[in-house]
Amino acid sequence: MPVLLAPQRAPALSQLLQAADSVGLGCSITESAQADTLRIAGIGSLNTAGPAEISFLSNPRLQSQLAQCQAAAVILRPQDWTAFQAQHPEPPVWAAVLCSQPYLMYALLAQWFDRHRLADLPQGIHPSAVVADDAVLEAGVHIGPLAVIESRTRIGAGSRVGAGCVIGPDCTIGRDSLLHAHVTLYHGVQVGARAILHAGVVLGADGFGFAPDPRTSGAWAKIAQLGGVRIGDDVEIGANTTVDRGAVEDTVLGNGVKLDNQIMIGHNCRIGDHTAMAACVGVAGSTVMGQRCVIGGAAMFGGHLTLGDDVHISGGTAVTSDILKAGRYTGVFPVAEHGTWQHNAAVIGQLAQLRKRVRATERQAASPAEPMNNKQDT
Amino acid sequence: MPVLLAPQRAPALSQLLQAADSVGLGCSITESAQADTLRIAGIGSLNTAGPAEISFLSNPRLQSQLAQCQAAAVILRPQDWTAFQAQHPEPPVWAAVLCSQPYLMYALLAQWFDRHRLADLPQGIHPSAVVADDAVLEAGVHIGPLAVIESRTRIGAGSRVGAGCVIGPDCTIGRDSLLHAHVTLYHGVQVGARAILHAGVVLGADGFGFAPDPRTSGAWAKIAQLGGVRIGDDVEIGANTTVDRGAVEDTVLGNGVKLDNQIMIGHNCRIGDHTAMAACVGVAGSTVMGQRCVIGGAAMFGGHLTLGDDVHISGGTAVTSDILKAGRYTGVFPVAEHGTWQHNAAVIGQLAQLRKRVRATERQAASPAEPMNNKQDT
Amino acid sequence: MPVLLAPQRAPALSQLLQAADSVGLGCSITESAQADTLRIAGIGSLNTAGPAEISFLSNPRLQSQLAQCQAAAVILRPQDWTAFQAQHPEPPVWAAVLCSQPYLMYALLAQWFDRHRLADLPQGIHPSAVVADDAVLEAGVHIGPLAVIESRTRIGAGSRVGAGCVIGPDCTIGRDSLLHAHVTLYHGVQVGARAILHAGVVLGADGFGFAPDPRTSGAWAKIAQLGGVRIGDDVEIGANTTVDRGAVEDTVLGNGVKLDNQIMIGHNCRIGDHTAMAACVGVAGSTVMGQRCVIGGAAMFGGHLTLGDDVHISGGTAVTSDILKAGRYTGVFPVAEHGTWQHNAAVIGQLAQLRKRVRATERQAASPAEPMNNKQDT
What we know:
3 copies of one chain form a homotrimer. Chain A is of the alpha/beta class. Chain A contains 6 helices and 36 strands. A 10-stranded parallel β-sheet of chain A has the order 6-9-12-15-18-23-26-29-32-34, with no helix packed on it. Chains in contact: A-B, A-C, B-C. β35 of chain B pairs antiparallel with β36 of chain C.
């Protein structure tokens, strides 16, 4: 992976594990003697990490990569370490870091390296930014070059607004939030603390609402969108994702919601805490989603639907009715070679008829003396 | 809903109804005495509107909410008012506004409140904007901070260009148009009057055209896109939607077309007047769509197709052949619990075979004496 | 089509053909006498080109348009010209340009006209741009108004960065690349030579990676994305497309890759040389795609998949497992009138059961004496 830290800035393994927020994960280093002198400059996967990097084993299918791994240290579950030792009497080149949650521990270490990188970022308000006189920037706020902060907007302590962002009037952004370049907030949008908004995010554009106007031939009367957008704490929103403002009430994203890139959340939607959506999902207006839902990429939701808590939707599925019960749901046409697909797809248009034929044949088979009255010419 | 107007600026109900463009909607207030003193500061839904707000009944299923509604006034059809009175001898706390089209009336009132809000917006050319010397800005044009207007572009009277927009050279924007922040127009794009373009809209990027070059192994020769984009009057385009320029001729959106967010219109397409598309729709190149079509979210259109007038496509449907006849069309795999889906999806790959078996069994059942010659082992 | 060149700047047909890169295409003009005086000011389709434009016949179905074509010249295959002459003894108004690859020749001519247009574009670093002191701009680089170039970034000779772009620190852009307006590069992104990046492109946003944190109820721990993005030479990326940075290693696009608008490439993906994707495609993380694949619009790919070389995926298809063999693959629910779809879709949920019934009926028909034990009430 890219060089993250120069050798002289790389922490010792034991220091690194302490610095990361690993309370409750039961993390311990098996080779403590070595661990004091080991410097960790970055993170790598099992088959690419070099002698200044730490790696981790989370997916059991990668266990066979442990023997050849060149990392300085590997995070793994105690049982995986025991199994490895049973098969490899010679100690490996890497120090074993035993941890009940290796994937989470990796996440925490990656956060540590990322914070270290962020320490180099510029501070203060760039002179090319356009900040309204009556905007309120709390302590330690950074505003990047050519960003625009409009009237009466308040930005919480420690937050960073990237280059070229446009934050409309009357917005509120909580503390320690990070807005990458080219984020757009329309007027009156509220974002909580510790948000991460990626480039091209648009919050608060008008919802899609029109009334047919019978006084004209086909024209639509715009329904001005008078509600707002409220985003909870600890929300991350991916690049070019859009969350529309409500028609009358607000569109709401709960705490801890995670949205990937190019997602569309329609007006009046309410998304429950900790729900996560992969890229390219579309949620039509006024749909309400529960907590801890997991939505696969490119799934699509009709409007005015209700999803319960802990509903998982497979990628590519179109949801057109309420789903109240927790569980996994799918609706995807299976891919096939094109010719095969053509043959099978042709039958889709006759399924109802085919079922009738089966029913008729069942009756016929059960009472073969009756004359056949359901003759088909297909 | 958010406070829209301070009490002292709130109009009387009768004034508000006159100010909104309600000609032809037969609007009348049943409680005229009260109506003069009632001040309306905003709009709310039946179950959230407070005593300074107006609400409306459009969806008959919400009729039961009328009795508890706390709004100052409710717009409803005369027959709904009669039905309400028959069941509730006591007069409600709200004044009844009788109107043949309550939803349209709500739209017009919301527009009135939105215009009022817009009256507070800044005017003129922000000093940080970069406007070419030979650009033509007609009377009353507003250019937001850090916007760019390039050479020979003309912007019609009363139009507003938001912060950070980039309007390329040789563009034309009609009068009273509203470009929100971060809109991009490539060179030579034409937009009509009263357009609303939301943040992140890109008009006039190159269409996707390449010719295989047999002189190389697999490389593509770019087909420079020499056409333009022409957008009619009264068009609204949602956030992060893209309309590509034509290869040779122009890509054209008719008058009154309404596009939601994150829609993609390929090069050379022509979209008929008043056609409306919900979010995440993709239309491949050279497809021609009629007037007053309604396209559900995430629908997908192949290239070089023709759609007639008044065609409705359900959300999530992939359209791969012409549809000339008006009507509603659908093609969506129904969602199910994942295990159920797996069982049924497995049969999709055998449908053609299944149909053959049904046919064979029909013959067998009709003439049971013949030996079975279509034995399957599934 | 739009006027491309004033008459006095229009080249003679023979000059134009020489100036375009037509080596190896066996291009010849049948009417050389006329060709010296013919001035070509633009390109048109067969039925719209005027007497100062050149057209081409590539699609055999358009052959009937040749007789009425008003163009100055038409590029066509020798065999099509012979066939035309056999049916039309009178010479046409256009000069015939014989070429083995008319569509490729058209592409090369369109490039020539586009280069001519680009010759008028402004040069140099616009005074409103914000360029870091330690950024390196090679010879002939153009930086548009209000663009931002951050520290240690290097931009190759002859490249153009459009208005309002934000190029983060430590990026590298190769020579002769063209970034349209509002492109965002996060830190450390590498782009090759001759790239074309359209407005709203975002390269290097964080991949979507979270680890469930069992120490909390439902919260996600962010996996900081420490890898980068590497884009090869001759890559074109459409408007509002996003390519995320890798978690540990880089996300990679090979040479000659062509991505249309609003595509999402997840973290850690590797896309092979010359693979082309139409608009609205989503590729989930860690998927590896071969060379020369062609992906139809709105196709969707699950994560951690492998696609071989020369795989073609039809538009709208969801790919959820590896496809190693070259060929065309499809999985799309066929569109139908809504009522028909409803009837057929209702059977989808009973397909596994229907297959069982067919099997039972087959047995019954084969041995009609046995009692029917699979009675269904549908």
